[in-house]
Design a protein that fits this description.
By secondary structure, this protein is an alpha+beta fold. The chain has helices at residues 19-38, 88-95; strands at residues 2-10, 42-47, 54-59, 62-67, 76-85, 106-111. The relative contact order is 0.32.
Length: 119
Amino acid sequence: MAKYLIIARGTGIPSTLSPQEVQKVIQKYMSWNANLRKDGRMLHSEKLRAGEGRVLRGQGGKMVVTDGPYAESKEVVGGFWLVEAKSYDEVLEMLSNHPHLDGPGILEVREIEDLSHLG
């Protein structure tokens, strides 16, 4: 089976939600994760800390580090899932009921290239 990286992009949980509504959103994610783990498809997942990070760029042969993600950015990477599946179609089926798609969230799916034959 191939490995796929699913990247969650979006604007985050709206600040207008009540604490109870936020808890409901979080519970949807936890349930979705639990179902994928129960099916043996989830390899790893993590939520990224909001508003923190560093951006590295090569500039004139040197590494330049800036804080990131940038505050002016409307969309942030909020987390990721690493899953196993037979094909993109199977991953898309897995994601058909993903809670991130309940709102304005975006999921990016990328197959991880198997480089084990190189090493």
